[in-house]
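Regression test attached.
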Amino acid sequence: MIWRMLLKLIPGDLRNSVAGDLEEELISIRQRYGRALAVFWLFGATLTLAVRFQLEEFTNGRPLPPIREELRRKPHMLESVRQDVLFGIRMLGRQPVFTAVAVLALALGIGANAAIFSAVDSVLWRPLPFANPNRIMQIAEQRPKEGRSFGPVSPADYFDWRRESRSFAAMAAHLDDVVNLTADGEPERVHKLNVSEPFLRVLGIVPVYGRDFQAGEEIVGRHRVAILTDPFWRRRFGADPSIVGKNIQLDGNSFQVIGVLPSGFWWPSPADMIVPLALEDSDRALRGAHFLRVVGVLHPGVSVTQAADELTAIGAKLSQTYPAENSGHGPGMRPFREALVGEVRAALTMLLGSVGLVLLIACTNVATLLLARSAARQREIAVRRAVGASRGRLIQQMLTESLMLSLLGGLAGLTMAWWSLGVLRQILPAQLSNLPGLASTGIDRQVLLAALAVSALTGLLFGIGPALAATRQDVGVALGEETRGNSGGSRALRIRSTLVIVEVALSLTLLVGATLLIASFRNVMKVSPGFGPGNLIAAQISLPGKRYPDQAHSAAFFQTLFSRLNSVPATAGVAATAALPFSGEDSRLDLDIENRTAQANSPIRAHPRLVSSDYLRVMGIPILSGRPFSDRDNASSPPVVMLNDAAARQYWPGENPIGQRISLGSPARWMEIVGIAGDVHHHGLLSDPVPEAYIPQLQGFRALGSGLARNMTVLVRTSMSLAAEAALIKAAVKEIDSQQPIGAIQSMAAIIDDSVAPRRLNLILMSGFAIVAVVLTAAGLYGVMAYLVSQRTREIGVRMALGASRWQILGMLFRHAGLMTGAGIALGVAGSALLTRWLTTMLFGVSRTSLPIYLAVSLLLSLVALIAVAVPSRRAVRVDPLIALRDS
Amino acid sequence: MSAFDSIGEFEHMVLLAVLRLDDNAYAVTVREEIFKHTGRDLSRGSIYITLDRLESKGFLKSRLGEPTAERGGRAKRYYTPRPAAITALKESRRALESMWRGLEARLA
């Protein structure tokens, strides 16, 4: 219906064919963007066309030769629109408070929506910056039995999938790595992305300078070539194209730069350069060690189901051939975008829903305001009708005013959205800024059009009711009623009370959601990570293999560093680990227990943790039984190992493993279990502890390659500030090895904080929405009560003249407000019980129907309502009966 | 006033698109045709207004086609060039070519 009304603004002779053209285009838009966006598009496009035609007519006139009925009427209609606009400006200007409140309410609603819509649009809907974004898939290991999906892949599996699969045009493995760059200038830690040769073909990206990798460059010995990313090339080499062909030093090895990627290249993990993933033959054969990630691009025309079926078949064959390593798991795939946004989809959808509720509240609010105004203008309208204005003419004028109001609100809202997106980008946690396009989210044409369409729609929807209501009354009755000055707007009051009830209900829903998130966040923060993060500072150091060829050399470096840092009085302890909790670093190996035969169906695995001897004490991880490591556990003493509680419970149920011997990975090396340590939530506060095996750094560990002992995080327990400690660590490292760079230095508390950042962002946004909702609702309540008081001034005067006490008057007013609030709360509780279902995955340690939360929120809203009602009520009881009666 | 003065660049493009499209020229296809050849994504409003102006200037004539279901039962407004359009286009081409002559070396 609204669309038909918009079409009316298009010249009559063209209207039908234009509408047909729009409907024709709508079909393809709907297929491409879905129903909801298509509707937005239709309104946006029609509105723009209408404005264009009106402007054209206004400026040039449409000099079409045949003068038809519509055209003859046009100048009249245009003139009336012009009159309405001018009149509207006068009316809005005459009531600045009303205008400001309405515009602000709409600005909050539309602004928040535009901001969240932009974010959601860029994360969930805009295509990824690759050649065939819809055909790019993540292929990963599925372990349904262990409840794990999309895990890392072993090299042997990857090569088998790549060889056997016919559905994929190209398939590539990738592996993040950090290396030391020592070209000319300062040494620097750089992010290197190791990729299989077809990687760029999967993404459909061609280097702007130089060339792509060639087939042979995946082979060890021929792999020392690198393609730089654009930002790194600009920063480090001043955008010099002649770098192609030259050599750079990575961890002491010479790599030839063979190309530069285009500036639009985007990848979810940080990457300064990509180099071929070259695996030794022994590593290519690994089937039990899972550490690769795999992407592939489907052949055109191959469906997702076809490809998935083929992968499943390949997986089943591999499980039969290699039952020891591959039973119980196999390949699975999903669109690459899902791999990136899977986890935040729920959160973004929740935010979009919440922000929609805010808009609904804002609209309701404006509708109450408009109703109040139209009631106050009853007399004016009656007079205008009495002197001959048609009802249609009056409705047109009132709609013009509400449209102007909502467009003003829309403009203010867009300003607000532009500003809040800036803020959003600032507070975006690191994990989220990895999402495609979120960091560069802005107000684009789509968002602009959507916001304008929403504004126009709001104006029409919430202007039409009051316009109809105001003009419905019979002229005589309206004039008569007005002269009698009684509460003739009882019908309008009913409508407005209903609107306020809806507002209260919507606010309650948002408040409940926000409070549930706050409670969950508090519960998450109460979870102990398993160690003491206070006063703990972590610094990443990776030693280059060239200068530290074996574990003895690396161990010597770290021992010197420890003793230097320990010599400072503020230091309470220094340690190092190859896999810092919350860092995402991890690996997993098969665990053999001496004198126990391994069972193929339930393999025993543990996560190795290479640590310095003081690690558990410095971290504050309790030792549950046995003894800690000491410096005597070194290369010349018998190999020892400590397990965590999870490993002990899982693999030695009801037994004491201390004294037994285990081996991790291959080659087999038997280590004696000397102690059991407390569990640590390695993958985040809410992750379950995994079986871990601590191995002393001084005894070394070969099963994960020699690189492990060189990439360590040094931990210092200190009373110094982060900045002072960082300076100390840098100075100490420089003294030992002046060419050695240091990676990120962070406090452990900050690392834990970062891990809950997405949760905190949800909570901040949700709370913001809830606060806006409550403020708008309070304004709505205030408006209704103020209107009630002004309408009933005469009645109150009469009552007081007849002896009613102030308390009785107050009682009457509060009864009305109480009924509205109560009904709103009841409705809101029902609504929350329904809507919080979408929050379940984001809650922790709190039920979505938690009674205390519902009670507290209801109480809070009642309190707000009380304050909103108090001001007009005070005015009511101050009514002087004489004045009230005389005024009317 | 020569024909070259009477049509702007925009109108020029729209006229050429109508000619190219033969008897299938209506707002949607005209817009697509221009995009296809120039990469310029013109707004719908500009297309409608230009077609409208060209009709009132006597360069184009329009007729309504058969209503179809996919368009909600609404007819397309097809445009065909009048002789004046051909004259204007020829004239503007001639004028442009004459202006270009001798500049090839400098603008190559």
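Expected vs. actual: identical. Chain A touches chain B through 22 residues (CB under 8 Å).
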